[in-house]
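Supplementary Note 3. Input sequence used for the single-chain structure prediction.
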Amino acid sequence: MRVLVISDIHANLDALEAVLAAAPPHDTVWNLGDSVGYGASPNEVIEAIRALGVVFVRGNHDRACCGLLPLDDFNPRRPVDSGNPHPGTHHLAPGPRPRPAQP
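The predicted structure, written as discrete structure tokens, is reproduced below.
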């Protein structure tokens, strides 16, 4: 089985599309996390990677956006958008999000 491994997309849709366009033939995709944060297209990135039918690992940025990780460990000097340490995440679609069970 040929696996395409992606990670650290950080809501950068242009970069994700470029990687997918340049990727060699593969049978499946594994996403090692950090799909959101910093970039301007979190909803579009999430939609794109869900469509791939990938195996997901939740990264620290993904956990923070879901409220599963405190924001204390993120860079305090990073420019923020209205106090949000993940500037791209304020664009996430509103609404309740179920919290997955913790192992």
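The chain has one domain: 3-91. The CA atoms of residues 42 and 91 lie 7 Å apart.
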